[in-house]
Amino acid sequence: MRTSSGQRSMKVGLIGAGRIGAFHARNLVSLEGLSSLVIADVDSGLAQRVAQEVGARATLDVPSLFGEVDAVVIAAATDVHAELIVASAQAGLPIFCEKPISLDVGSTDRVLEAVERSGVPLQIGFQRRFDPGFIAARRLVESSELGRLYAARLATHDPEPAHDAYIRASGGLFRDMMIHDFDILRWTTGLEVVEVYAAGDTMTGNEAFPDIGDVDTAAALLTLEGGAVAVVTGLRHDPLGYDVRMELFGSRDSVVAGAGDKTPLRMLDGEPEDGSTPRHQHFMDRFESAYRDELAAFLRVARGEIATPCSGADAREALRIAEAATRSLREGRPVAMDQIP
User: Fold this and answer.
1) Closest Cα to residue 280, out of 156, 138, 188, 184?
2) Do the Cβ atoms of 230 and 222 come closer than 8 Å?
3) How many C-beta neighbours within 10 Å does residue 190 have?
4) pLDDT 10s digits, 136-159
5) Digit-coded pLDDT (tens) for 83-134
6) How far is CA 292 from CA 23, 31, 38, 97, 130, in A?
7) β-strand partners of 73
8) Predicted pLDDT of residue 28
9) Are 279 and 241 in contact (CB under 8 A)?
């Protein structure tokens, strides 16, 4: 744990000690301003193991955790995000929660109403907002160096599908994976989506996807206000690794964020590759610094130093786009955003 005499030290509670929870734990204990970390999980043995690994302390349950900390990081399963956010808000604790708040707009609104009543800040985990490439792209748009935006292309490709239990509880490809693209597109361009047309299918042969009405391969064509268009692709299987990119095409410049030596693409032009540079294999190495920086920002939010950099309203809007894409896929037609609450 690291603290500085120039800032208030924070006691943080982490709810959820699975893969992303353990990753957050390692990042949290490395941050300036954290005096202690307390971990809770429905699997108490898992909470104990992660706590021992990072030098934190495990507690028996979430109510016990609430009485010991100044702020909460929620990294539990998606289906309990809503109830944990509400409970944390009622306890008067600043909240960081992994996306999404909930899997539908109605329950998301009820959660946000509870947070607003409590007066505590809420930050949602859209870590791409802290990635240097996406930050640079946003600055080019804001400064008008890119000119008028004509089009955007975004990709999120996982190396392989998650386990079946995760797939069945995820809410689907658009709400679980491509929601990151929908958020970063809004954040980077400053433009709202006005219409969505989506197509997709199951290409891997994994029966878990069609069983729940989901797909593992999809694309969404988004029409933005002002007439610009964006194409987003989402794949649950990429044999080369974890691939997240965004290209912006404007009247003055064209740029790409997320393309580099470690991008899991085999380049057919230029010098032949020698295979010496490892490609990104999972989200934790692709966005390692972004995950750390978003938690550092959350500590500042919890201390009242800055406003939340990714609000519940932002998360709600990304979910609305995901819902429009889901409806479009099922109904085989474009869906205007004004058809989604």
Assistant:
1) 156
2) yes
3) 13
4) 999 999 999 999 999 999 999 999
5) 999 999 999 999 999 999 999 999 999 999 999 999 999 999 999 999 999 9
6) 10, 8, 18, 14, 9
7) 14, 96
8) 97
9) yes
Contact 174, 273 (CB under 8 A): no
End-to-end CA distance of the chain: 44
Q: Is 257 helix (H, G, I), strand (E, B) or coil?
A: strand
Q: Could you tell me the pTM of the whole model?
A: 0.94
CATH 1.10.3470.10 fits 10-127+291-310, yes or no: no
DSSP helix/strand/coil, 198: strand
Does residue 186 have a pLDDT over 60? yes
Single out the residue of 248, 241, 246 nearest to residue 262, CA to CA: 241
Looking at residue 32, the DSSP 8-state letter turns out to be B
- Note the CATH number of domain 129-286+319-339: 3.30.360.10
CA 324 – CA 200 distance, rounded (Å): 14
Q: What is the DSSP letter of 1?
A: -
Residue by residue, DSSP assigns 264-321 as: S----SSSPP-S-SPPP-SHHHHTHHHHHHHHHHHHHHHTTSS--SS-HHHHHHHHHH
Which tokens in the block code for residue 213? 């009405």
Mean pLDDT for the chain overall: 94
How far apart CA 57 and CA 65 sit, in angstroms, is 10
**221 has which bridge partners?**
197, 231
Q: Give the whole-angstrom CA distance, residue 216 versus residue 315.
A: 23
Alpha-carbon separation of residue 303 from 15, 37, 174, 203, 300 (angstroms): 20, 16, 34, 47, 5
Which residue(s) pair with 98 in the sheet? Answer: 125
**Element containing residue 149 per DSSP (H, E):** strand 149-157
Phi-psi region of 39 (alpha: psi -120 to 50; beta: other; left: phi over 0): beta
What radius of gyration do the chain's Cα atoms show?
A: 20
Task: Tell which residue, 283, 278, 18, has the closest CA to residue 131.
Answer: 283
**Residue 229: left if φ>0, alpha if ψ -120 to 50, beta else—which one?**
beta
Amino acid present at 36: S
Domain spans in the chain, listed from the N-terminal domain onward: 10-127+291-310, 129-286+319-339
Q: Which of the 8 DSSP states describes residue 311? A: -
DSSP letter (8 states) at residue 207 = T
Decide if 156 contacts 231 (C-beta within 8 A): no
